Amino acid sequence: MSLEVFWFILIGVLWAGYLILEGFDFGVGMLLAVIGRGSTKAETNDKRRLMLTTIGPFWDGNEVWLITAGGAMFAAFPAWYATMFSGFYLAMLLLLVALILRNMGFEYRYKRDSDRWRAGWDAVIIGGSVLPPLLVGVALTNLIHGVPVDRSGNFTGTFFTLLNPMSLLGGVTLVALSLVHGAFFLALKTGGEVREDARRVARQVAPVAALLAAALLVWINVHTGTVWSWAVSVVGLLCFVGALIADRRGRDGVAFGGTFLTIGAAVAAYFLAAYPDVMPSTISAAYSLTVHNAASSHLTLQIMTGAAVVFTPIMLLYTAWNYWVFRKRITTDHIAPQTDPLAKVEAGAH
């Protein structure tokens, strides 16, 4: 295996890790819009705090996978990075804004004991959880569909060039899969009404997500598929079916593992279908960026490989340890009464 192919695979693993791990906390953020309501405002707040507490130890670490994937693309395939991040500039900017506002929502939601204040930040969290998977799905699907790249490797289209039917289906499918993934995560991590509500939503959304995923994977493989991408796509769909069966039997961990594998298989199918292209050109196949003509020098890849061999296992071990520490199921009984930090400041001033 050449170093170019090795780094193409590793970047695929990084994108899969990001979408799997960040996918469930995107799903939890979206679910604030449809579950977690109580008979009183205080009960609603406790349920939503419970939902956000389940992802509290994980969401910022999950975003590191996105940074690492982007950094690996920049270092290993600078031509790919330059064309993609310049051509998809507006989409990437919207992605960053959505992530920043969502993260602000996680932090600022608790700064005042006010229903109106919390409702505003909840809306920000919901919007910031829907937009990123939509944009990432659109961007990655365009790497299969192809974009207008000229002889010099420059993107010659516009933002609306990216909004073709295949890429829009990819974005909507990733949103639906993230929602089901997040619902299964909530079912695994919580008890009581929140768990039952999450399972109910998962059962309602899962058939739609399955149809969207099947349509997308078939379209991708017909467009530019290989025997391996077809095989991985079938495995991913079977894992999703297995997740639904496990949910019916009340096996929350297996259900979550099923959607975990489904998203991972979908990303693998993308990269297998794209190889050896990293950015196919719709102007001429001769202008396409490939694993070989977009890569860094051999020496650069050697240095990067040495660093990856050392630090990747450390990152994986730390991530696994973090999830192990916070593995327990929680309920609203574990949520302490909320206090108003502003009131404490005012009291201290007096």
Name some characteristics of this structure.
two-stranded antiparallel ribbon; mainly alpha; Formate dehydrogenase/DMSO reductase fold; 350 residues
What does this structure look like?
The protein has helices at 3-31, 41-55, 59-76, 78-87, 89-108, 115-145, 165-189, 193-224, 227-248, 252-274, 298-325, 341-349; strands spanning 277-279, 289-290. The chain has 350 residues and is mainly α. The chain has a single domain (3-333), classed as Formate dehydrogenase/DMSO reductase fold. Strands 1-2 form a two-stranded antiparallel sheet. Helix 1 (3-31) runs antiparallel to helix 3, helix 1 packs across helix 7 and helix 7 (165-189) packs antiparallel against helix 8 (193-224). The radius of gyration is 21 Å and the shape is globular. The model has no long low-confidence stretch (mean pLDDT 91).
**Strand order in space, largest sheet:** 1-2
- Rg from C-alpha positions? 21 Å
The CATH C-level class name? Mainly Alpha
CATH superfamily (homologous) name: Formate dehydrogenase/DMSO reductase domain
Distance between the termini: 69 Å
Q: Tell me, briefly, the overall form.
A: globular
> Which residues sit in consecutive blocks of at least 5 with pLDDT less than 50?
none
Mean residue pLDDT? 91
Tell me the CATH architecture. Answer: Up-down Bundle
Report the biggest beta sheet as strand number plus sense, adding barrel if it closes: 2 strands, antiparallel
Q: How much helicity do the residues have?
A: over 70%
SSE succession: HHHHHHHHHHEEHH
CATH topology: Formate dehydrogenase/DMSO reductase fold
The total of beta strands comes to: 2
